[in-house]
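Reader question, answered in our methods column.
A reader sent in the components of a multi-part assembly and asked whether the whole thing could be modeled at once rather than chain by chain. We filled in our standard form and ran it. Here is what they sent:
COMPLEX SIZE: two components
ENTRIES:
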Amino acid sequence: MAELTYREAVARGIAQEMARDEDVVFLGEDVAKAGGVFKTTVGLLERFGPSRVRDTPISEQAILGAAMGAAMTGLKPIAEIMFADFIAVCYDYIANEFPKSRYMTNGQVKCPLVVRLGNGGGARFGAQHSQSVENWCMQFPGLKVVAPSSPVDVIGLLAASVRDPDPVIFIEHKSLYATKGEVPDGEILDSLGTAKVLRSGTDCTLIALAMMVPRALAAAEQLQTKYGISCEVVDVRSLIPLDTQSILGSVARTHRAFTIEENPRVLGWGAEIMSIIADEAFYDLDGPPVRITTPHIPLPAADVLEDLAIPSVERIADSVYRSMSA
Amino acid sequence: MAAKPSQDALTSVPSNDDIDTATRLELYRLQVLIREAEQRAYDLFLQNLVKGTSHLSLGQEAVAAGCAAAMKPGDLSFCTYRGHAHTLARGVPVEKVLGELMGRDNGLMRGKGGSMHLTSVAHGVMGSYAIVGAHLPIACGAAWRAQYKKQSDVSVCFFGDGTTNIGAFHEALNFAVVWKLPVVFVCENNLYMEYTPIADVTAVPSPAGDRAAAYGLPKIVIDGNDADVVYRTMNRAYDLARRGGGPSLIECLTYRYSGHSRADPAKYRPAGELERWKQRDPIKVYKERLHEAGMADAQLTAIDDDVKRIVDEATEACKAAPNTSVDILFTDVYANGGCEWRN
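And here is the structure of the entire assembly that came back:
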């Protein structure tokens, strides 16, 4: 057992898979010699060499296209898109190419690749380097979408993504890179499509993802201490495939559902989950389902503005308290 | 010591006769086969048996034939939505192609892809891509795999003149050169991006050839209506790629006889242009050359007849084939064979 940062967990996860399978290769901008702009891939070049860990030009279409061509012909590439926002310039691969190749070819073409994204706000980078783009990726049948919230999940879910035969968008949160967690020694392998109940509770369910997970846990603690409200916190972890059974199971126990989403409001992942809850757990509910999200605005750069936009521990706790006491 | 591989070798194409008779006959057969199958696809469209859209290569047969005849088994083709010709040229049966166009159960992908996405991994046809430019980076990735695993296959990527104005073209060219990948980019310049003349919307006269210098590659513009020229040029480009000499960019000048797609009557052509190009019809040119080389007319007629029989039989087989099974609507979205995205 060792304490690792989320950032170090990325490198360890990639290294674990590259050491296991020489078909795993890694490419991206500034990932090799520089070790990544977020220092998430330090040491990989030295350990695995320049034929497996490759710096690319600033050519996001070439990065994702090359990953796909390599995946189709037998490799298991991991591609990094530095800031998640940048997938807008190579969206064709995410929207049209990766997810449809198997279906269109009646199963002939395989596309086992992982695209890692540096996602999310909190770093004062402004509107084009801070977005939460989960829902940009969720809407295409054929893709899988994963977003871990802790170092151990980074390793386990990254390993599962690399070994998965489908294309996986692996969404890392930039503001979690410095956070720490206990990580067991040896190989770590998790499974996609599994949510985790991180805190048990009886009064309501907080359904959270990525950076919203530690905030939901802190809000749950406040709600318990201040108001005696017992919150269950579910870390969704995997948006596609989605573990609805764990979510619906929790709602059946607590009878109230809140999603905590970093994305701007319209069509966030929580909207899909709430529609499932409304459809399949309506009679379990004792009150309205509530979505706590960033407002439908671009993210500002200044700290006081950004902090106001993204759901904070206080806002989460306040929203839950007001809804629970209404 | 072997000479250092160089793209410069590609700029001179020998004019002496270096192509054996069997290859010559194969080049002829492939062109006739593509012509006949494409014409049949159009006829079936007029009969409302081919639905959706189709983009024909009538007039451009020499490019597909020359490129494919120079390939080895295991080489990979990456095609565009105008991909029937390149698919047929790699040996994919006519019935499979027409069946796909018709949405029948005998189709290449059982109707799940359609005309614009013909794929036959078993024949090295790694897909037909309908988003302009998307497959140039994908071909780079396949070539990267060959380089990384020290395999000797070449990835050959076909695209039209219009593709040279999209970003992915430039990203892929730079990437392929920097990584020295075994990929050959083949631009079929048929003078029209879709409906608009390529010259009206492009900064340079040769849309691919004049861009080559930006990536440190020689300008190679060849007669795409001469299958021999295409064959020789590709042989050298593939060889260069296999020897670790990196990518090539080859522009083939050609002309499509039909409109951009089935919906296009091609009224934008200047008067007489089509007729002028038909005087240099690739099959006509090639037939004359074979005659000059002493090939008996009966030998060529036998090929023509054989091709016609194959296409006729394929057509009848497709007409008789059942519609594709509705059972496959939900299959192969994910690798487990299904479409489940939640539990």
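What stands out: The longest strand of chain A covers residues 257-264. Chain A touches chain B through 52 residues (CB under 8 Å).
Send us your own complexes using the same form.
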